[in-house]
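Repro:
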Amino acid sequence: MTSADDQICFLPATELAQLIRRRDLSPVEVTEAYLRRIEARNPVVNAYTLVLGDQAMEAARAAEKAVMAGGPLGPLHGVPVSIKDLDDMAGVPTSMGSWAVHDRVPKTSAVAVERLLDAGAIVLGKTNTPEFGHKGITDNLRFGPTSTPFAIGYNSGGSSGGSA
């Protein structure tokens, strides 16, 4: 992880979308920076329960081709996002932080996920949540607690602890 990665990963989504649209940054470059950050930080923070690295890179390469082709782009074209493990994404396990549904793979996506994908967002993976989202802290028996990245060991809250 480099300081350039930090600069990219802390940009607002609107600014990332503009930089991608202007070809100042490529979706591949942005997605790689995010994946490096996840690889470096997730073992300590435990925000992601599932990283879709190969799928994200495939989507980033397709997004880059679309930018270079000059066609119409969605408002989040090439911008990496994560999906809370309570929200379904077709073909991707959704465990809701529970062992009870750990092998559930939905065939359809939640409306919110469909809208993100339609807007051109690139899904990096699924983020940790309390079991079934029913707690004010993110800690579950399946994946364990999620720390705030600013104070390791302190819980990031819930039900969007991994997203936080």
